[in-house]
Amino acid sequence: MKKFGLYFLTFVMIASIAITCFACSSKEETSTGGNVLPKETRIRLATTTSLYDTGLWSLLEPLYEEEYGVELDILYAGSGVAFEYGRNCDIDVLTIHSKADELQFIADGYGMERIPFAYNHFVIVGPADDPAGIAGMSPEEAFATLAEQQDSKFISRYDKSGTHTKEKAIWAAAGYNYSDIESSGDWYVKAVQGMAPTLLMADEVGGYTLSDIGTFLANQGDLVSLVDSGSIMLNVYSVIAINSSKCTSMSSASVAGANDMVEFLTSDEVQELIDNYGAEQYGQSLFTACYGNEPTE
Amino acid sequence: MDDLWGAFVQAIHLIVSRDPDVMDIAWRSLWIAAASTAICVVVCLPLGSLIHFNRFRGKHLLLSLLQTLFSMPTVVVGLFVYIMVSHSGPLGMLNLVFTPTAMVIGQTILIIPMMLGLVISAFSGVDKAVMETATSLGANRLQAYTVNIKEAKFPMMTAVAMGFGRAISEVGASMIIGGNIVGYTMTLTTGINRYIQMGDLEQAFALGVILMFMALLINIAIYLLQKRRQYVWFPS
Amino acid sequence: MVPVIEAKKLSHAYDKRNILKEVSLSLDRGDALALIGPNGSGKTTLLRLLDLLERPYSGRIYFNGDDVTRSGRRRLHARRRMALVHQKPIVFNMNVFNNVACGLKFRHVDRKIVHRKVERILELVDMSDYRNRDARMLSGGEMQRVAIARALVTRPEVLFLDEPTANLDPASVSKVEDILARIISRGKTAVLMTTHDMAQGQRVARKIGVLINGEILQIGSPGDIFFAPVSKRVAEFVGVENILPGTIVSKENDLAIVNINGVEVQVITDLAQSENVHVMIRPEDITFARTRDASSARNVFQGVINRIIPLGPLTRIEVDCGISLLGVVTTRSASEMELKTGSNLYASFKATAIHVIKRG
Question: Nearest C-alpha of chain B: how many angstroms from C156?
Answer without folding.
Answer: 9
